[in-house]
Structures are given as structure tokens and as C-alpha cells.
Amino acid sequence: MTDSPIYRSAWRSIDQDMVDAFAALTNDRQFIHIDPVAAEKTPLGGTIAHGFLTLSLLSEMSAEALPPFEHTQYDVVMSMNYGFDRLRFLAPVRTGSRIRGAFTSKGWRERDHGAVVFTYEAIVEIEGFNRPALAADWLFLLQLAPKGCKSVE
Fold this sequence. Notes:
Largest sheet: 6 strands, antiparallel
CATH topology of the domain at 6-14 and 50-146: Thiol Ester Dehydrase, Chain A
Number of strands: 6
Number of helices: 5
CATH class of the domain at 6-14 and 50-146: Alpha Beta
Shape: elongated
């Protein structure tokens, strides 16, 4: 097997407004996310993004970085997030940091009724740090149909 290419998104900033909006949306108002004064007194040295905020940005980053699925005989009718086989939050993302997604194909397997499950290793890199924010094996379910057919039979 040859080495798969790594597809990377652009860097994006994680600012306090984004973290505050995520806190309000999810009702996760732990002080390490929303109180800069209190968070500065912790070993973190300031506020950090929620792990689930970082995780949620994978959708945008993958849409930007990953090439479209191409096949000589099939078109993609729909693509869905199929979940994770492995997910670890490895380092905090400090507010004011920049992150990007790095995606490497780990292969695919066929399923019933013209479906294919792709697995990507997804890494969220933090600019200037050796340790990533998170690492996951992310699954995508693609429903396929013969070229030119717009619906699943």
C-alpha cells in the first residue's frame, strides 16, 4: 500500500467570541472557556476552546481540504457523517490560537445497497505546537448510484 496524501485546510482563528457563542449554544459555560480572568489563574494560562467546538470544525475543514469522490462508474448521491471509531482530545486550544485540519485516507469498505464507508485519520493541528488538539478516525458514508442516475434504487 502506498502512502496516502495528507489534505490540509487553511488555518482558522479561534477567538473568544467564537468560544462564547459555542458556550451559549451548548450551555457549557465552564469558566475555563468563558472567564479570561479566572482561566488565567489556572495551569492553562487563559481560556480554551471547548473540545467539542474544535471537533465541530472538522466538518468545515474537511469540506475545504478533501477532494471530491470520483469513480468511473458511480456518482455520489449523498454523503453523511457516519461517526468516529476513535477520538482523543490531546491538547487544549488556547483562545487566540489558529488551527487547521489534516486528513489522511485510511481506506474504505463496501456496504449493502451501493454504500461505501470511507475512513479518514483527522488531526487538528495547532499553529506553533508539535502536539495536535485532537486525533480521530472519522467515518463517512457515501451512497452511490450508477453514473447519470440521480436517485438510489
